[in-house]
Amino acid sequence: MISLGIVLLSISWICMAAVQHKIHSPLSKMDIQIVSDNEDIPFITRSIVVRNIKSYFGDALIHRDIVDTDIKLIEEILEQNPYIHSSNAYIDAHNRLSIKIYQRNPILRIMTADEHSFYLDGEANVLPLHDKVVRRVPIVTTEKNKKQLRSSDYKNILNLIKTIRQDVFLSSLVEQVHLKSNGEYIIIPKIGKEIIEFGHLEDLDKKLFKIKKFYKKGLPVAGWNKYKSIDLRYRNQLVCKKIKSS
């Protein structure tokens, strides 16, 4: 019994010593992985991540003892960057600080009446324009100032753009979307001289279906560049206004 107790005590001491040695050993290097739905247009790069970390910790993070490395703080600092959705940092068995970053990706760009311009991501979060990278996304203009826009506006705009982009025909047709001060929308097509008075977003799918049907079957028969506007603001109706002949 005594010898067994000594063995167990020795094992316990060895384990404790190994743990102490591990936590007081320095970090060896930093590995960074960035996850994005579009790797050709990186809004977050390794150099940006390193710069964000160094801005807080200086150059002393690598070679710092593991026990003195605050993993949670590293994640919080990185997630202050508006283009970082989330981060996951951990120290592996080789004392490497591994960081996995999930990038936010712009879905559309808004241009306001008071000349503010910014992106929205897929969760309707506002992203500032990047100083080095530009992503080609749908443009939404508005008569509202930035301070007048509410979260509900962002969600509605995002819903409209997402719905349009899910349809190949509509994606090819729509050039721009405009939000009026009264909350109604105008769609500007890539072809023709007309604008589409879309109105509010009630019956969104039905209205978009009417647009598709009209552009596929109506306009080819009636003639292109004939109408000033196509109005969907009236329930169950599509009203066309012709361009006045000179």
Tell me briefly what this model is.
The protein is of the alpha/beta class and 246 residues long. It has helices at 2-23, 46-57, 71-78, 151-165, 168-173, 204-222, and strands at 29-35, 84-91, 96-103, 106-111, 117-121, 126-128, 139-142, 174-179, 185-189, 195-199, 227-231, 239-242.
Structure characterization notes:
- Strand 9 (185-189) and strand 10 (195-199) form a beta hairpin.
- The protein is of the alpha/beta class and 246 residues long.
- It has helices at residues 2-23, 46-57, 71-78, 151-165, 168-173, 204-222; strands at 29-35, 84-91, 96-103, 106-111, 117-121, 126-128, 139-142, 174-179, 185-189, 195-199, 227-231, 239-242.
- The protein has 2 domains: 26-103, membrane protein fhac (Ubiquitin-like (UB roll)); 106-242, Rossmann fold (3-Layer(aba) Sandwich).
- The strands form 2 sheets. The chain has a 9-stranded mixed beta sheet with strand order 6-5-4-7-8-9-10-11-12. The protein has a 3-stranded mixed beta sheet with strand order 1-3-2.
- Mean pLDDT is 84; it is low at 17-24.
Largest sheet: 9 strands, mixed
Mean pLDDT: 84
SSE topology string? HEHHEEEEEEHHEEEHEE
* Helix segment tally: 6
Indicate how many domains the architecture comprises: 2
From the N-terminal CA to the C-terminal CA, the straight-line distance is 111 Å
CATH homologous superfamily identity of the largest domain: Cell division protein FtsQ/DivIB
Shape: elongated
- At the first level of CATH, what is the class of the largest domain? Alpha Beta
State Rg. Answer: 28 Å
